[in-house]
Amino acid sequence: MAKKKLGLEDLGGFVFSTNDDFDENDYVENEQEENLEPKDQRLEAHFSNKGRGGKTVTIVKGFVGPDEDLVALGKLLKKKCGVGGSTKDGEIIIQGDDREKVMQILKKEGYNVKRVGG
């Protein structure tokens, strides 16, 4: 037996308006992420080798802010460590187990960072 539809949420959240002065921008959530100062950030430096063919990486998680700032911070870390890496899904991935070096760089930049795992 099919589930009974109870409200607008069950219909996918569509709302139809007959108001000619309706402006959907008044109701759209602000999708821009807030930009926290480095001292207010709580970053975590992880070590991982899962899903990478046994190769080790350092992953920095917990960054809050625009993607452009995340990419810039990732570039800085890669340059200072002299290694490759990438930024995706809100994480900075640095090739190799350079957690201590990454933590020192982040602390110099004013971020709060803690070592997680192993």
Automatic annotation (TrEMBL):
MF-aspect GO terms: mRNA binding; translation initiation factor activity
Biased composition regions of type Acidic residues, renumbered to the chain: 21-35
Cross-referenced CDD domains: YciH_like
Domain SUI1 as annotated: residue spans: 50-110
GO terms under biological process: formation of translation preinitiation complex; regulation of translation; translation reinitiation
InterPro entries found in the cross-reference section: DENR/SUI1_TIF, SUI1, SUI1_arc_bac, SUI1_dom_sf
Domain of life where this protein originates: Bacteria
Record bears the keyword Cytoplasm: no
Entry keyword annotation includes Protein biosynthesis: yes
Matches recorded under SUPFAM superfamilies: eIF1-like
Pfam families cross-referenced by the UniProt entry: SUI1
Annotated keywords: Initiation factor, Protein biosynthesis, Translation regulation
Annotated spans, Disordered: 21-41
Family (UniProt): Belongs to the SUI1 family.
Name of the protein in its database record: Translation initiation factor 1 (eIF-1/SUI1)
Upper lineage: Bacteria, Pseudomonadati, Bacteroidota, Flavobacteriia, Flavobacteriales
